[in-house]
# Entry
Amino acid sequence: MQLDPATREKYIREAPELMEAVTTGEAEWIMKRDPVTDYCVKFTDGLCAIHKEKGTAFLGDACHFFPRITRSLGEVHLMTAALSCPEVTRLALFSEGAFALQPAQADRLPWSLMDYLPEGLSETEAVNVHTAFVHAAGDETVSPERSMARLGSVVRSLQMQDSKSWPMAVEFYLKHVDGRLPVPEENIADPFNLLHALVGLLKAAKPSARPRLEETIHAMEEALFASIHRETLTLTTSDASPRAYLALRGAWREQWAAHFAPLLRRWIQAQLAASLFPFSGLGDSLTERITIICVRFATLRLALMSCCHAHQGIPSDEETIRVIQSLSRFLDHLADPALSLSMYKETGWTLEARARGLLGDE
# Structure
């Protein structure tokens, strides 16, 4: 976990012994990792020793706020939470109204807090744009796949407009979006490419123990009759692999999709809320940001299909949470989208028609 400069200075001044647990890394100053357990060196018997002995005032921002995410639009601060925490996944995806904004007081804000308010928009207008996307993602009259396709179409139109026009433009584009959707272009290789891309990102990441994610990936391999060599990234399939996926997709549509639809809608809302979409997120443009969310949605849906295949039916809520959290814990901590976007461009998923085919929206 990274250590912010303010907390590091606090350690130096008031608790110099804690500096023994601090080292340097990609985030400049970070907490040391135990080489045996792979946990923070201050993690003892399931508890944080710093929290236990010194209190929350001595926790760095990364530890104090996790799993909360705070972003600003001018003087308005919006706080949500990450699905990389299993309890947040349960609360966010299994509860009605989890993403309705509620006024609250905070006794502490992150040391570094970026302001994403575009020039020419008021705080109220920006919040309304953001909530319009979150609300649209929760539309219960359409499938979550159609909601994702709609969002992709709207942002492609929106990015051609000056941000000053976004409050009115978003309303217009959302109202007329279905008539602007392209014909989906499906490719039988898509599910295998999703698996391949996920393992490729995993190999490129810093080595760490990820048993829950490996369980998720293994279920995907079994369901697709495929395997990926972790070192060479060689994907091996058989003649039965395409048929296996088509059977899996058929079972999803006929038996499992309706059960998971409310969870997937809220998952989309969670991605939009966490990134303060469309004002922030992974990627330099609206299209890049929505492409990353789209591909992660398709990856999660494939993982849930595979979990149903492994359990020969709808799994327990706890197993569902494990699948969602294991993917979120890894993907939500990828700070650089360059590798992801290069993979997605190569497969054609940055194109709207291909993205819609990937989603399975009909």
Observations:
- The chain has a mean pLDDT of 94.
- Residues 190-359 form one domain.
